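Supplementary Methods. Inverse-folding protocol.

Structures were first reduced to a discrete structure-token string of length 326. This string, shown here, constituted the complete conditioning input.
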């Protein structure tokens, strides 16, 4: 039997135990992947194999000619585009707030457990993400594009919600609502799609290893896959389809998995860019065993875990849920 080389994180207090008594924590604001130039509070970011820096609460993240990926609440991922800045004033497992100061950031939300708050603010206004989906935010002026999902516009228009294919722009103290073409993606969208595919492939490997080793998996969370060198998301049960059409399996549904990882129902969606000019150097991100050696053990069951998504709870067959269901 292959050795289980997985790290389970993002549940309960975000603390996991590793063989050899080493304790590691994973909280919202973990820098999971980076290309090109980026800093936290003015210091150059470095990612070494299997070691992921964390943005402190109130910390300022900035990119130059580069981009990076932040893990937020379980199932939510932020991706910061080139020449962008954001601050992280709130970083809890059930509540995260991003202050976008410059440039652009995208949010891919695979699941949004009940009671979880995920908000983005800029220029005196604030937006709350209400459902799984894909969202893109731009500063100056503060603009939201909803590719998939639903968001609530706060500030002067409390309770106003917008969904797929709609955009909102903060102008002169109020929201201006309009439409946009979802099938004309920009570079940040394309890079986000490529990263979503990478995490989906890691999910397939990690979920299979959990299933083959009969490892318990009672709550959704982040899981370490040594073969790809990534943390990936594992739902509690059933499967999720990301906003880009990539499937994320639970251990109990992975037996139904088949290549490709992209759902056949989303083939008409724009794909990731393969142009050389859209790429930056990956910062030391090679497949490697998790630091500390040995085989990470399954985290203890938390006292109270997040509620599973209504669309995937108790699902034993491969029904889609999450960002883009079928």
């Amino acid at each position: 039997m292959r050795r289980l080389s997985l790290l389970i994180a993002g549940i309960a207090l975000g603390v996991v135990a590793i063989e050899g008594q080493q304790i590691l924590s994973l909280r919202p604001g973990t820098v999971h992947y980076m290309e090109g130039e980026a800093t936290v509070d003015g210091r150059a970011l470095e990612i070494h194999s299997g070691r992921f820096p964390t943005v402190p609460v109130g910390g300022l993240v900035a990119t130059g000619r580069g981009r990076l990926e932040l893990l937020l609440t379980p199932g939510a991922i932020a991706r910061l585009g080139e020449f962008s800045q954001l601050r992280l004033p709130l970083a809890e497992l059930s509540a995260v707030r991003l202050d976008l100061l410059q440039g652009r950031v995208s949010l891919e939300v695979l699941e949004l457990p009940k009671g979880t708050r995920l908000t983005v603010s800029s220029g005196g206004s604030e937006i709350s993400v209400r459902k799984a989906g894909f969202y893109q935010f731009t500063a100056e002026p503060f603009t939201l594009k909803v590719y998939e999902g639903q968001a609530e516009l706060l500030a002067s228009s409390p309770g106003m919600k917008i969904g797929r294919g709609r955009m909102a722009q903060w102008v002169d103290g109020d929201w201006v609502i309009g439409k946009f073409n979802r099938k004309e993606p920009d570079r940040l969208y394309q890079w986000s799609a490529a990263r979503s595919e990478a995490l989906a492939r890691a999910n397939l490997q990690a979920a299979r290893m959990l299933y083959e080793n009969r490892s318990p998996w009672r709550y959704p969370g982040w899981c370490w896959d040594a073969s790809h060198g990534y943390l990936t998301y594992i739902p509690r049960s059933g499967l999720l389809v990301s906003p880009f059409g990539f499937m994320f399996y639970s251990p109990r549904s992975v037996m139904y998995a088949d290549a490709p990882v992209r759902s056949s129902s989303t083939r008409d969606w724009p794909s990731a860019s393969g142009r050389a000019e859209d790429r930056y150097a990956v910062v030391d991100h090679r497949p490697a065993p998790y630091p500390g050696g040995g085989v990470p053990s399954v985290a203890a069951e938390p006292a109270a875990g997040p509620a599973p998504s209504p669309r995937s709870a108790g699902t034993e067959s491969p029904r889609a849920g999450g960002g883009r269901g079928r």
